[in-house]
Every structure is written in C-alpha cells, then in structure tokens.
Design a protein that fits this description.
By secondary structure, the chain is α/β, with parallel strands linked by helices. 51% of the residues lie in helices and 12% in strands. Strand 1, helix 2 and strand 2 form a beta-alpha-beta unit. 25% of the residues are buried.
Length: 205
C-alpha cells in the first residue's frame, strides 16, 4: 500500500503542487487515501471516502462484513502459501473475464443494486466510466489488482484511524451490500470525521 502513497507524492512533486490537496477514496481505495494522510499528513487537506471500506482492525468493521468477505479476508491471513496461490489462480480466471468483457460483469452486478443505484449506473456516461475503471483494475493483473487489494485489506495495523490528522468526510449508502453501513460506521472512530448516510443508496451511490 505504501508504494501507492509514495507514487502519489511523487506525482504531486512532479506537478509542482505544494499546497495541501483533497483526496478521495472509493470502496477499498479508502485505505489508500487514509494511508496517504499517514505518510504525509501536512500535504493532505481533507479525505473524502465514498462507499469506503474501513481498515480491517477498526472496531466493529470485520464482524459486520458479509460472510463471503470475512471468509476471503481470513483465507489470505491463515492459509499456507500454496493454497493462496490456488486462490490467486482462481481469481486470475475472473480477472481475465473482466478484462475481456467488463460490460457483462457490470450488467450482472447492476441487477443486485438498489433501484437508485441502477438508475444512476444506467446512465451511459456513468456506465462507461465504470467500465473503464474495471478494465484498468483488471489490466494490473491478479497480483497487483484484486488479490493485491485483498492482501492489503486483510493486513491489520496498516491504518490507524486515531492518527489521521485530516478531516474525513464519509459518504455511504444505507443499502450498500458490499460494505454494509454497520461496517462503515467504524470510520466514526476517527478523531475528525463527518458522515453522511444516503438513504436507499448502495455501493455505487
């Protein structure tokens, strides 16, 4: 996770941006946004988290995640390496599917969304943007994309909410089935947080 923060800081330096910046993290990207504040607190003005996944060891987070997510997180913590490689191979199949035809996977995902999210995601420009995100994510390969994210998320002690100095704005849907509201409330343990919970919105807001 730290290399993402370091790369981001290098980009800011290359662009000559010295003043504090606003950072946005979506879903698992919440951990990356918070890590950036930990690495360079003086350079972050605020952190906005959209459907954000809290740090794994934040109070109440893991116990409120869906069963499948809890099982995946536990697997990468406790399974021996050869079994993790088997998981990696299985995930690789899904990643290649996403790379070849991201639209099909997104359409299937759409059917599980709350009505307000479906209406939002059905807009051509929004749908196209989401396809581009999935294609870029899958292009990174399994190790740096989905499995890499899973391993970082499953590692306790990476993010300490009590040490986040920038103000945090949490925006979360009450009908989110990927990161349930009960899990997202773990962000309320941060020292300077404002939360807006959007009624009947899901993970795609």
């Amino acid at each position: 996770m730290s290399h993402v923060s370091e790369d981001t800081l290098r980009v800011l330096d290359a662009l000559g941006i010295k003043e504090p910046v606003h950072v946005i993290g979506t879903s698992a990207g919440a951990n990356y946004a918070l890590d950036l504040d930990q690495k360079a607190p003086g350079r972050i003005q605020s952190v906005t988290l959209l459907s954000g996944l809290p740090p794994i060891d934040a109070k109440g987070m893991e116990m409120n995640m869906p069963l499948a997510a809890r099982a995946a997180i536990k697997a990468v913590r406790v399974l021996p390496e050869f079994m993790q490689l088997a998981i990696l191979k299985l995930m690789g199949v899904e990643v290649r599917k996403s790379r070849r035809n991201p639209e099909a996977g997104i359409q299937a995902y759409l059917r599980s969304m709350p009505p307000l999210d479906q209406a939002n995601m059905s807009q051509p420009e929004v749908f196209k943007n989401f396809v581009d995100v999935v294609r870029d994510w899958s292009r990174q390969g399994t190790g740096h994309g989905p499995y890499g994210d899973l391993r970082r998320i499953a590692t306790p002690g990476v993010i300490d909410l009590s040490k986040i100095s920038a103000p945090i704005h949490v925006i979360h849907g009450t009908s989110d089935s990927i990161v349930p509201l009960s899990a997202a409330r773990a962000f309320e343990g941060a020292p300077n947080v404002k939360a807006d919970y959007l009624s009947e919105r899901g993970h795609a807001l």
